[in-house]
Amino acid sequence: MKKLIVANWKMNPASLKEAKGIFNEIKKVASKLKNVETVICPPFVYLSAISYQLSAIKLGAQDVFWENPATGGGAYTGEISLKMLKNFGARYVIIGHSERRENLQETDEMVNKKVKSALKGGFRVIFCIGEKKRDDESYLYFIRDEILNDLKDINRKLLKNLIIAYEPIWAIGKTGKAADSPENVFQMGIFIRKTIMHVAGEKLSRNIPILYGGSVDSKNCAGFFKEGNMQGLLIGGKSLIPKEFNKILKIANKA
Ligand code: PEP
Fold first, then answer.
1. What's the gap in Å between 198 CA and the centre of ligand 1?
2. N or C: which terminus of the chain carries fewer CB neighbours within 10 A?
3. Catalytic residues
4. Extended beta strands in 22-130, E state
5. pLDDT tens track of the chain, all 255 residues?
6. What are phi and psi of 37, to 5 degrees?
């Protein structure tokens, strides 16, 4: 299975010119790698410009609205529909990122509706989970509840397009030192997969890719594949620095 490397550009960069520049630098390397699937999730406003240049790189969005009218449009101010994303060539969508849960009060119920709708719409969903703190073992209950609540009542067959991104919130957006340890990520991978069995069944849950995210850089990334046994990475900060991101892509290609 190819390693899945997802770039989450968040609310960056500030101009289309910069966005194109970063994209083109990444494309030069990504197009040569056979063992990596590279997905870039830019802000909505850059999807159109980037969609014309896709080939080796897949396009993703950072969010989507749960209502999916047949026309692709509706009275939902500020929202973006699955059909709009599809028309720009996006096939991936990040849902449930901790920054949206925290800053926009996205609830489990809202995340559940979005995941359900996006999977029904044929998207590959990068479903984000992660604990706020890890003082005691209660964080495992937190992760379990997030999975069970957010994936509630979803047709099992649809879950074949699910991707889990395990992103401990305390490890996001820091320096490399603040990333989780590959050993813990390994344990979490087992825990997450076992929990997913409750909603996806044994067979399917074995094939759902699990990505690690949180302060990944070119120095620590190899460990998440080797000792962490991750099928990919979700990368924020370093995905805006092509030199660094390309190094990660090359390491993933050999992992
Ligand atoms: C993220 O927010 O998805 C993320 C992983 O960010 P960073 O790589 O900057 O920690």
1. 28
2. N
3. 97, 167
4. 36-41, 57-61, 90-95, 124-129
5. 899 999 999 999 999 999 999 999 999 999 999 999 999 999 999 999 988 777 789 999 999 999 999 999 999 999 999 999 999 999 999 999 999 999 999 999 999 999 999 999 999 999 999 999 888 889 999 999 999 999 999 999 999 999 999 999 999 987 666 778 999 999 999 999 999 999 999 999 999 999 999 999 999 999 999 999 999 999 999 999 999 999 999 999 999
6. -105, 115
Å from CA of 248 to ligand 1 middle? 14
- Pick the residue whose CA is nearest to atom 2 on ligand 1: 236
Backbone angle region of 173, left / alpha / beta, with phi > 0 → left and psi within -120 to 50 → alpha: left
pTM of the model: 0.96
